[in-house]
Amino acid sequence: MKQQAIVAEQFGSTARTYLTSAVHAQGEDLKIIQKAVSRYTAPRVLDLGCGAGHVSFAAAPFAQSITAYDLSPHMLAVVAQAASERRLVNIETRQGPAENLPFEDASFDLVVSRMSAHHWLDVPAALKEAARVLKRNGMALFVDIIAPEIPLHDTTLQAIELLRDASHVRDYRVTEWADLLSQAGFMHECRSRWRLTMEFNEWTARMRTPAERVQAIRSLLDSAPDETRKYFSVQSDYTFSIDAALFAGTRIKSRQA
After folding, report:
1. Cβ neighbours for 185, distance < 8 A, ≥ 6 positions apart
2. What does the pLDDT average to over 114-128?
3. Which of 9, 79, 108, 109 is the most exposed place for a label (fewest CB within 10 A)?
4. Beta-bridge partner residues of 245
5. Quick one: pLDDT at residue 257?
6. Are 184 and 111 in contact (CB under 8 A)?
7. Is 69 left (phi over 0), alpha (psi -120 to 50) or beta?
């Protein structure tokens, strides 16, 4: 099965759980995104890799239009239903991969992607597409889990992520994000960093991780070096903490001419 098919399948049966997940439905990053949208006058917003639509819902009161875009039709169905229930008439859904956006150049005032990039097959291509569809005075905001700069901890994070979710590709380091954004034609900054506590049973249940993989994650954490267990603040019930970051970018004119 190809990677994009794996992503679509993984989020089929679990789509609804992401709508009510506290990790996804809350957070200071949503407030930062909402504040950024509110600074524009009736902006057009692309919610890239929208998942259950939390960015779309946060931006809706301030936007002229929001395009919730995702590879998973099941996620888009959840967004459409929730938007209808909340009477958010300025949200529309479109399906497709992040690496090939079906929009004209300079179509959006803001491009926002939250907790999606670690599923993308080709991040450089997706970021270039994000830059292409962004207006010259627009802003791009990217939020994602970030990997540790120390390889020992990085390897552990990627392993447990993949065991939990077959659609996982990679959590990128801050230094990797900087290179990727520059190569895509963005002037950028890491605007915020924070820690997220992942309650283990909820974290695995949300993705319906098979029992044998859950046990493999526990075994991996049990055998991890002390410094890695300390870095991730692994608790007795396997609850742990990981890092997240928000990156802001604007187009570099010379690279988009």
Report:
1. 128, 131, 251, 252, 255, 256
2. 97
3. 9
4. 144, 193
5. 38
6. no
7. beta
Tell how strand 134-146 and strand 108-114 pair up. Answer: parallel
Which of 47, 65, 50, 46 has the alpha carbon at shortest distance from 18?
Answer: 50
What tokens appear for 7 in the block?
Answer: 């992503």
- Report residue 129's pLDDT band, with 50, 70 and 90 as the boundaries: very high
Q: For the whole model, what pTM was predicted?
A: 0.90
Residue 40: closest CA among 111, 132, 131: 111
Contact 140, 250 (CB under 8 A): yes
CA 3 to chain centre: 17
Quick one: average pLDDT of 173-194?
Answer: 97
Do the bridges between strand 134-146 and strand 240-251 make them parallel or antiparallel, or are there none, so unpaired? antiparallel
* Edge-to-edge strand list for the sheet holding 240-251: 91-95, 65-70, 44-48, 108-114, 134-146, 240-251, 186-198
257 Cβ neighbours under 8 A, 6+ residues apart: none
pLDDT the model gives residue 21: 52
- What DSSP element (H or E) covers 114? strand 108-114
pLDDT at 133 over 80: yes
Q: For the residues 17-29, what does the mean pLDDT come to?
A: 61
* Residue 160, φ and ψ in degrees, nearest 5: -70, -30
